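I keep forgetting this: the sequence line spells out the residues, with the fold written below as integer tokens. I include a record here:
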Amino acid sequence: MGKQLIIGSNGQVGTELLSALRAKYGKENIIASDLKEPKSPIEGPFHILDAMDKTAIHAIVKENDVDTIYLMAAMLSATAEKMPDKAWGLNMTSLFITLDLAKEGLIKKLFWPSTIAVFGPNSEHVMTPQHGILEPTTVYGISKLAGEQWCAYYQRRYGVDVRTLRYPGLIGYKSAPGGGTTDYAVDIFTKAVHEGQFTCFLSAERTLPMMYMDDAIAATLQLMDAPKEQLKTYVPYNLASLSFSPEQLAKEIKVLIPNFQISYEPDFRDEIAASWPESIDDSAARADWNWSPKTNLSSMVALMLEGNKSLSKV
């Protein structure tokens, strides 16, 4: 088996994906890379790498016998709205570089994450189907929809083994969020533990699909391990776990921190969230590769609060 490369290993998902892959395959077999050194030292190989530097990526792949790439570098929804040109350039250029590596036979397998941001105001908002109306209203969503289509094209035209999940909002405590519209559901726990209060940039009732990070990482590894013949759905796969509003999340936090207070000051991110689904139909993933989440809302809240408390002791 060749080595595996994570591009964007310092990010919210990349950080935990790196830990999971190294635990499974050994630290020397998983190469981490990002634009900057990680904030905390990590064991195992790490490279400073620009996700848009084709020459550098090719060199790492060839020099290290890399056969699998996880392309986790991206500019997320809220940040991308402020820098649309840069977001489009990063999100699309990095994808083409890695798709072409697979097309040329230099790697065997590619993982590229998509998102619920590919849906829009005319999509079905409850149990949004795998194949439905896709009319994104953000730069992030537009780039991810375009990427989905290119992944499917390379899969059909060139036989590239590219695997894609439409992540919902992801919630973890081991790294900082990266500028997404669902980031409130990460920051709220930090504020609850350290300040006892939180001001939310979404409206109280804004329900969105969410997922605990451990489930997202497990789904990613499970999809990548699935035999190719089982994957009957063209990329990408819908992925679902939890759906809740800020108000519902705050209520669960108050069970464990009774004095916690939340207030609401909706901004442009609430308008973005209003165009997204409230819940997702992921029956194709469940049927094709036996996907099933493990974490419910109350257990996720307990894990996030305990995780933030443990970080404050370090």
